Amino acid sequence: MIERVVFGDVLPTGVFKLHSRFRRVSNFASVDGDMVFVTDDPMLMAGHAIQLSQNIFREAEALTITEEFVSTGGRLIHRKDHPVYSSCVSFAGIDFNDFETRLNQLPADYGHLFPEDSLLYVLDPERCRLISGAFDRQLARRILDGAELLLAGQLENGVSLVSGAGKGLTPSGDDFVAGLLYAMHYLGAKNRLCMDKRARQLFDISKGNNLLVNSFLWHAMNHNYFQTLKNFVYSCTRSGCVSQALIALLALGATSGADLLSGYIFGIQHRIGI
């Protein structure tokens, strides 16, 4: 059987050692802090990923990646023989008003699908009543304070307060910041502005010691979209196609997809970075 292999379009090169392993994903990191991951799930595909129909690297402890091949444990895969995943999203030719109308309507129409402890309360303050527990109340206060700073145009202070806030593999605040960075890509396309310098500033503020978070934010800064987010964004450009792609996005992590989306909508609504 010929195994299906897909390579991300922004795979870094070098030697990568195992960082963490989960049911559908194995993460690898280089000494320089670059990260790649291997998955058998096409919906998780991203610019810095390798997709395999059966995860032959599941037991791998290290990867070597060059421009020509990827190898591990004596197995060599030539990159030229396999397709490349595109992490790009283009907003050329879309109806921006329709796109934003669909986004803005999501909390009202689909708020019931969002996890109760997600950051959707930044967009819908009524959801604050769902927050229970001292930790979550303290987190909400910090996130809402950060959102107020963002609204006041104090982007550096707002991002600094939100970054790292929360729990989990990628804290909720970092997922929210990733949403802001993707929103800046959209705003730049809509307004024909280069947002790269501003996005870099926010990335530098939010960058910390968590390699997974740093990698996630770096790709958001460079508007490299993972497949599930890419599907959702394109669904919002077409009438009647949002719900299925939204459900897939909200299924990521405990609240990661919901928190990223909350940051994305917030950033677009309030023209963050412009």
**Could you say which overall geometry the principal axes of the C-alpha atoms support?**
globular
Mean pLDDT: 93
The parts where pLDDT drops under 50 for at least 5 residues are none
End-to-end Cα distance: 52 Å
- The string of secondary-structure elements, in order, is EEEEEEEEEHHHHHHHHH
Strand content: 5-15%
Query: How does the helix and strand content classify structurally?
Result: alpha+beta
Supply Rg. 19 Å
Helix proportion range: 40-55%
Tally of alpha and pi helices:
9
Q: What is the number of strand segments?
A: 9
What strand order characterises the main sheet? 8-7-6-2-3-4-5-1-9
Largest sheet: 9 strands, mixed
TL;DR of this structure?
This protein is of the alpha+beta class and about 270 residues long. The protein contains nine helices and nine strands. The radius of gyration is 19 Å and the shape is globular.
Describe the model.
It contains nine helices and nine strands. With 274 residues, the protein is an alpha+beta fold. Strands 8-7-6-2-3-4-5-1-9 form a nine-stranded mixed beta sheet, covered by helices on one side. Strand 3 and strand 4 form a beta hairpin. The longest helix has 20 residues. 39% of the residues are buried.
Provide the fold topology.
Blueprint lengths: L4 E4 L5 E8 L3 E5 L5 E5 L9 E4 L9 E4 L3 E4 L2 E4 L5 E2 L10 H15 L23 H18 L3 H8 L9 H20 L4 H11 L4 H11 L5 H9 L6 H9 L5 H14 L5
Parallel strand pairs: 1-9, 4-5
Antiparallel strand pairs: 1-5, 2-3, 2-6, 3-4, 6-7, 7-8
Keywords:
alpha+beta; 274 residues; 9 helices; nine-stranded mixed sheet
